[in-house]
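Lay summary. Proteins are chains of building blocks that fold into shapes, and those shapes determine what they do. In this project we predict the shape from the chain. Here is one chain we studied, written as its sequence of building blocks.
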Amino acid sequence: MDKNELPFLTASQLSKLIETKEVSPVEATEAYLDRIQEVDSKLNSYITVTGEQALEAARQAEQEIAQGKHRGPLHGVPVAVKDQFNTAGIRTTGGSSILKDFVPDEDATVITNLKKAGAVLLGKLNMSEFAMAEIYHHPYGTPRNPWDLERNPGTSSSGSGAATAASLCATSLGEDTGGSIRGPANFSGLVGLRPSYGRVSRYGVLGGSWSMDTVGPISRSVEDAAITIQAIAGHDPKDAYTWDVPVPDYRQALTGDIQGVKLGVIQERMDSPNLDPEFRETVAKAIGVLGELGAAAEDVSIPLAPNAGALTMTILSVEWSNLHRPVFEPHIDYLDHNNKIRFLTGSIIPAQAYYKAQKLRAVLRRQILEALDKVDVLVLPTGPVTAPPVESIPGIQSKEHALNGLAGRISFTGPFNLAGTPALSVPCGFSQAGMPMGLQIVGRPFAEEMVLKVAHAYEQNTDWHNRRPPV
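And here is the predicted shape, written in a compact code that computers can read:
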């Protein structure tokens, strides 16, 4: 096979070729490093490329596979991770100049798990500073969307979206507090899975909100997302919030059979005045495809869903500001303009407001779980719009500007980080301007396999995942 074509294979396709020794991990790693060198100056998706370490890991994987010691579907597969996860001996910046020289001496658990799976780490990916939504300034270069270099690839896992969509890694890890996996998946035409709260360890992860942070895959196919989460999921004694429950074989769920699956269409999101009509029509057609495959759709109501943005940002601002106060206070002038405002705002939000948000969160979670008692999955748009131009994300200018943001993407993704349920974005079409749109599929707690099953059935009966960005 032409070496230059290797980066365009899905992780699953490449994995099969590596397992059968038709392609070597070294050959695949070299192909990815060449493509990063060729393309990433346009995208700014990587902060740190670990070329020598990657080639050493690839040589080790090649030797193990030659000896019949194949570890599984990620063995020898080149991957990349958001620069939010500690990597021993490799700097971890959190997307901030404050941490430009921070080199951890221990891996995050998800990195340890990737290494156990035999994955080859290509490097650390760009992100919004301290994983906090839209920012005004990116110290390591503004990430660009490979579908249109003048557009945003999504926040805060920006580099994970850009690099994966542009085939600069086979699959990647992001982190999702209020939508930072699903948002880049939506904007960049990818599959992004936010697992259930407690499914994946957060030990060694630069946190934002102890009650909402999750780590998950951003991938080019549903099967890739399944094998990626398979490698990182599970109980971790180092993270008291992980659940000690069995991790299923997620690929076994990808049968294509969704006959009789019940879909709940969230009316408060489909009828949102903020939802672009073209996006609404595209998602409605996607739900129709699921119906043709045997699923049964019915309308459901989640009355508090439109308020999820306000609830998420109240809780996140307080927890984020408190968590990072020791770092932020002495370096406040180094913070991005937006993050400086968020830090100061989060520091003065009254306890009563935080408490009220948590009480309303419990009500919203109950509404979601009650809806999931009646249906197998919930479906809705991943966001209200396609990727905006990069320059359309200015610094926070006013109270009204901040309030308008609460009605955007985070009011579509936010309900499910508040509820702790798994949620996945899968490509469901393109706008007239050629930008991707995502269908969001939500499951019961720890029912990632059902979410993946429905997404895979849809994906395999449409062509959106086969399109390549022009970069």
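What the prediction tells us: The longest strand covers residues 423-430.
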